[in-house]
Structure formats: structure tokens, C-alpha cells
Design a protein that fits this description.
Elements (H helix, E strand, L loop, with lengths): L4 H32 L3 H21 L14 H24 L4 E2 L2 H11 L6 H40 L4 H23 L4 H26 L3 H21 E2 L4 H4 L6 H20 L2
Antiparallel strand pairs: 1-2
Helix pairs in contact: 1-2, 1-6, 2-5, 3-7, 3-8, 3-10, 4-5, 5-6, 5-7, 5-8, 6-7, 7-8, 7-10
Amino acid sequence: MNPSVADRKSTLTTLIVFLVILGGASALAHFALVYLVPTSLYVGALMMTPALAAFATLKLRGGKISALPWSWGGFGANWAGYLIPVLYISVSYALVWFFGFGGVGDPETLAEWRGALGLSDAPLWAVTTLMIVLMASVQFVKSLGTIAGEEIGWRGFLVWELRKLMSFEATCLASGLLWAVWHYPIIIVYGGGDTLFQLACFTVMITAMSVIMTFYTFRSNSLWPAVMFHGAHNIYIQKIFTPLTLETEQTAFWTDEYGVMVPLVVTVLALIYWRRAKAEGL
């Protein structure tokens, strides 16, 4: 892409306005989470800031909110957005369990699931299956509001502005790194482990995810595959596989969003999409 000097300056100004508004709004939410209490209400407020920053930027810069890629984008792209996280998270935890970096079926989690479902006498397989189905459907749908708050800003607005100035590959890297850094205050305060290690693993994972999400965003001309992807990633890693894993001395190193395995597996997948994007001329 070869935008004119005036167009480049305009895009740079738009990006700066977006980042300044996002930084200010996010700082307020981060302050509440760090210095007040890490309630889900403050987490939800933080997740809404990218969308609010995008809307405010469009208003200030003379753009239209209706011009964002709101269209559904096709069932294929949206199903891919949902199923790809299921794939790489399932493979990651299967490897963790196979190599003994964590056990299968944490008793405390299973007891909590029995109580939450009111099925104290039901077979364990039935309790586990029902909870996974409900998490993957009902809880997934419930989470989409705040997930969309992030993705309207990241994949609905930011990547399209970055693409005016740089290649697909650079857009993925830049947006992924910004997305990762935006999470840093929470990881630093609440990570509970080796902070530098956790930040490194998280950054690799988020950047790799960004490649796949941006691929489907541009290919479908829609932000919804990214919403589906982000929602499925959160549910399957935070609500299903990590709670089900019985911890050993090695588990924290290998699992969750701050361990090694998920970043490794999703990076391999991202490299495939990197090549696909190049082949398709994205």
C-alpha cells in the first residue's frame, strides 16, 4: 500500500488520538482494579475501553461508527473463530496431561461443578460433560458483551487503521503487541509468579493469536470472527481446561495463559496463517 503523505499523516493522527484516549480510559480502570478491588465490574469496564476509544476517535476525526465492520462476515469465518481456540487449547492441554506436567480432573474443581449444578449424586462423567457444554454455550454467550468491547477496538478499528500504513504481517505484530501491553498492569499485579516469564509467555501467545484473528477479520471484512475467537479462547482456557488440570510442581510453567504450552502451540498455528495470508495477498 502506498498512501499519500497527507493520508499517512491523517492515519497517524487518528492512531495517536485512539491510543491517547485508550490509555486514559484504561488507566482509570486499571487503577480501580489495582488499588480498589479486582471485581468483575471493573474488569468489564476495562474490557469496554477499546470500543469506547474507537467510538470517541471516530467522532473526533469525523468518521462514522456505522462504517466499522459490523457485518456478520459469514458462518465459515465465525465457526473458524470459535473452533480454532478449541483446537489449540485442547492440543496444548492434551500434551500437558500426556507428559505429566499436570493431572486430569482436579477434585476441587469437580466438587465445585457438582455443587454448582446441583448434581451431587450424578456420575462424574455426566457432571463434567454437562458443565463443559454449558460453559461452551451459555457462559460463552454471556461473555460476548465485554469481549465485543475489546474487539470493536482492536479488530474493528485498530487493525484497519494500521493496515493503511503497513503490511499484514506488521499490522498483526503491532496490534498484537499493543494488545499484550494493555494487559500488563493486571499481570504484573495479579500474576502471582515470575513476572517476566509470565509477560513473555503472554505476549507470545497474544501476538500469535493476533495473526489468526486479523487474518479472519480482513478475509471476512467483519469483527465478529475475532469476537468468537476471543470468547472461545477465554472460556476454554480459563473456565474449562485450566480448572480441570490437577496441579503439580511443573504445572504453572506449562499451563494457562502465562505458561509455555499454549503460546508454543498457537504460534505454530499462527505461522500457518502467516503463510496463508501471504499466499492470498492479504
